[in-house]
Design brief:
This protein is mainly α. Helices cover about 70% and strands about 0% of the residues. It contains 6 helices and no strands. Helix 4 runs antiparallel to helix 5 and helix 5 packs antiparallel against helix 6. About 5% of the residues have low confidence.
Length: about 170
């Protein structure tokens, strides 16, 4: 009888886990992983097929102008999300719709920060190929991450999310 009980218990746990995964955005690869992978591809191509870039003093200034606000925005976004009982896990359901702080200005400030940090690092290290790929990364983030998250948030929070979506821009 204990085997039957443990088998039933295992089935119930598996069904619960399946329901939890189904009730999530389903974004299994965190967006920073895409940015890091594409940056490494850019580094590889820059080493093999170098593209010109600005002279170093200009590249340094341009890089810092993007990187520093990007890091600050990432920190503020994460703190606001955690304080608001949201989640940083793109494959998990959020307990709360966070619409305060920086989320009053952008629905996706963490993704804006990813792009700024990526662009800043590409500029600092003169990785022109990485900058060439930045628009593609933004489109990838939009299609593979943001759209599934928006579908989930609409299902999960309904009219509350629709109202938020109507008054706050997706990126900036």
């Amino acid at each position: 009888m204990s085997d039957t009980m443990s088998e039933q218990s295992a089935r119930v746990a598996a069904q619960s886990a399946t329901r939890q995964r189904a009730d999530s955005p389903g974004v299994r690869i965190p967006p920073p992983v895409y940015y890091a992978a594409v940056f490494l591809i850019g580094l590889f191509l820059q080493a093999r097929l170098p593209l010109p870039y600005f002279p170093q003093p200009y590249a340094l200034v341009l890089g810092l102008v993007a990187l520093l606000p990007g890091v600050a925005l990432a920190a503020v976004s994460v703190i606001t999300m955690l304080r608001g009982k949201g989640t940083l896990n793109t494959n998990a359901a959020s307990a709360q719709l966070v619409t305060t702080g920086i989320y009053r200005v952008s629905r996706n400030p963490m993704y804006v920060s990813n792009a700024l940090i990526y662009g800043g690092l590409a500029s600092l290290f003169s990785v022109t190929w990485a900058l060439v790929f930045l628009p593609l990364l933004i489109i990838l983030t939009q299609v593979v991450v943001i759209l599934p998250e928006e579908r989930f948030l609409t299902r999960h929070f309904g009219d509350e999310y629709r109202a938020y979506k109507s008054r706050v821009r997706r990126w900036l």
